[in-house]
Design a protein that fits this description.
Blueprint: E1 2-5, H1 11-23, E2 27-32, E3 37-42, H2 49-53, E4 58-62, E5 82-84, E6 87-89, E7 93-99, H3 106-119, E8 123-125, H4 143-155, E9 160-163, H5 170-174, E10 179-182, H6 190-198, E11 203-206, H7 213-226, E12 231-235, H8 253-260, E13 265-267, H9 269-273, H10 276-288, E14 293-297, H11 315-331, E15 335-336, E16 342-344, H12 345-350, H13 356-360, E17 363-367, H14 373-381, E18 387-391, H15 394-403, E19 408-415, E20 419-420, H16 422-430, E21 435-443, E22 447-450, E23 461-464, H17 466-471, H18 473-479, E24 484-487, H19 491-501, E25 506-510, H20 512-518, E26 521-524, E27 534-541, E28 546-548, E29 556-563, H21 570-580, E30 584-593, E31 596-608, H22 614-624, E32 626-635
Parallel strand pairs: 7-8, 7-14, 7-15, 8-9, 9-10, 10-11, 11-12, 12-13, 17-18, 17-19, 23-24, 23-25
Antiparallel strand pairs: 1-3, 1-4, 2-3, 5-6, 16-28, 19-20, 19-27, 21-27, 22-25, 22-26, 29-31, 29-32, 30-31
The structure holds phosphoenolpyruvate and manganese (II) ion.
Phosphoenolpyruvate binds at residues 101, 127, 163, 183-185, 206, 236, 268, 271.
Length: 639
Amino acid sequence: MIVILKKGITKEEKDKVASTLKDYGFIVKEIVGENDTVLGAVGSRHIDPREIELLPGVSSVLPISKPYKLASRELKKDDTIVKVGRVSIGGNRVCVMAGPCAVESYDQIMNIAEKVREAGAVMLRGGAFKPRTSPYSFQGLGEEGLKYLQAAGKAFDMPVVTEVVSPLDVEMMKEYIDMFQIGARNMQNFELLKAVGKTGMPVLLKRGMCATIEEWLMAAEYLMSSGTDKVVLCERGIRTYERATRNTLDVSAIPVVRKLSHLPIIGDPSHATGIRDMVSPMSLSLIAAGASGIEVEVHNNPEKACSDGPQSLYPQQFEKLMRDIEALCPVIGKTLEKTPRIIPESIKEESADLTTSSQDETIVAFQGERGAFSELAARRFFSEDVKVLSCHSFKDAFDSISSGKAKFGVIPVENALGGAVYDPLDLIKIHSELKVVGETEIRVVHNLIGFPGTEIKDIKKVYSHPQAIAQCKEFLEREMPQAEAIPFFDTAGAVGFVKRNGDKSIAAIAGSPAALYHGMEIIRQGIETNPSNYTRFYVLTREENVEGFIKGRKKEKASFLFNVSDEPGALMKVLEILYQKGLNMQKLESRPIPGKPWEYTFYVDALIPENTDFNETCREIADSTVGFRLLGIYENGIL
Ligand code: PEP
Ligand code: MN
């Protein structure tokens, strides 16, 4: 049952409710949601819910209609995010786990780990205990394999996931791995589920090849009722009459499970298809369907692989797949999970093993109210739970980064439809102590947001930022001609305004995080005229010791500014240098210089080719211009 607590419940009252439930033999879990706090109580006893409903501090008691309780969406409305080391799985993130079917040798796993990490995988897979159809097939290296897997995970900064096949191995395996995998063949091995659940560690639960979705969620329930909350489901294909592929990938299981359960769900396109060339298209279909990631087999020498060679991707195929996934993510409003790219040195020293709690100390400033698109961008770049500082104006945001109140700032510089955002460009020039250390882009999806139950025809006024109103003009004219569009300072702020106003005849246009933050309802999603609406952000800091570190990323990007003297061909000279050095210019923007009518500062973003002496390029540009400043060199975050 779900016990919904009153907003003002005291700690004593809550403890009393929990202990009463426990006395009845229930397992009790507290779930703090956006809007209310509930206690989930599961067990075999049937009691009269009124006994609980009458306790002080209890608002109401609801039954959970599904046989799985802890795993059910009825119990927990928000998506569960499972943390494995520094990697987060769930919600709108896309997490890629890759590696060989089986760990075959130290060199093999090291080699593959390096390749998948370079391409962008965030977790490493590799079986040490292989449940094989034939007793004569390779059974895995056992504990020896776990040692190699652990070493590769540590060397390339990836948490590791591996299959457990026996309850007797659980204790031993705990020491080597970050996440247990329960294989398809063991999905209903209840003793194994209980033993693994008891560890409290993250578990990847494959769907049994003949299991219904309900049976699969019941297996998750076994894990959760035994003691772990960190369950990730994995669709890996089911047995059907079709023999063209090894199994039949049930893509529709993804949206079905997302509706039924709060647990993250990923897909395994390798075991689903059994055929290398079908792995990439199925990976993309899983992600497009809403999966929070994939687990995919990659081998450096698949022809010689001890198991599942025919379905293992070559490293180059995996790299191509990663690029396709990266391109797909923003289109469907997802973020590709990456190992954090920027770690300030100060934080590095404090914590050797960089847990997420050390990340929490990073404060990131953005302009706008909570729930703004800039906040979304900040979370995309850093992490979902990074601490953010909402700043009223761009000037306030820059001042916070400058003063050290925030270590970083995530600031918009251009929109694909609206062009440059001028204030930040002007402020960057004034704040010469700041540098650009990264960039990110988000797809801007506008929503009509109002009070729950509001009907479009009843809305008289719509508030939003003028740009957002302009971008939704067609929808407003077509679907709600009766409503007046009223400009507001920012999109998320408009949602806050509507909420405070309490009037059901007004609504706002903003991104979905603003609706979530203010507990308002999305009345209509994706109302922008042009869906190719992206905003690009600079990541700024004044920290000296910041290291950009995804190794092996090929494209580096630089941003710089300069003024030119008032003579023919002055800008041409700079362009000539860029051309000679093979720099691919991504943006050229000009801004007037205050106090010097008709003189301009130019802002350039350019990709730096490999093996270029970029310092030399900078010197040459500086010699041909006035006031040259390198704003930063960083990893290219745009595709
Ligand atoms: C595996 O991932 O190595 C594996 C054996 O998968 P499944 O249990 O889905 O067959
Ligand atoms: Mn395999």
